[in-house]
Amino acid sequence: MAKKKRIRYAQIILMISAVLFVFVWENIQATKLGYRIEQTRQEIKSITNANKYLSKDIQIALSPEKLQEKALMLGMIYPEPEQIVILEKNNNSNKKNLGWFAWAR
Is there a contact between 95 and 103 (Cβ–Cβ < 8 Å)? Predict the structure, then answer.
């Protein structure tokens, strides 16, 4: 009878230990996932900030003032009025279409 009691107590202790092990393991996994989620949020925030910064940088680089400044640094000058050629799109079928740039004669 004493042997059966010891076996029964051992089984109860093993079951309680297994339940406690699973409980602790679940809490550890939940904590790890929480840290990973927070790390991912920080990465998203960092990438979003970098995206905003780069978008503003692109807008500044493509602004007319910056383009004019760079063109002048490269030695470009404004054309004289007689140097300006305005291309008009004609729908004549005898002209070959070369795309948006020009019409062939």
Answer: yes
What is the mean pLDDT for each group of 10 consecutive residues in the chain (105 residues)?
90 96 97 97 98 94 89 90 82 56 49
Report the DSSP beta bridge partners of residue 103.
97
Q: Burial-class residue 59 by CB neighbours within 10 Å (0-12, 13-18, 19+).
A: exposed
Distances (CA, A) of 95 to 26, 34, 44, 52, 55: 76, 67, 54, 46, 42
Provide the Cα torsion 63, 65, 69, 70; round to 10°. Answer: 10
Evaluate whether 83 touches 89 at the Cβ level (below 8 Å): no
Record the pTM: 0.52
Residue 102's contacts (CB-CB under 8 Å, 6 or more residues apart) are 87
Residues of the chain by 3-state class (helix, strand, coil), percent to 5 = 70, 0, 30
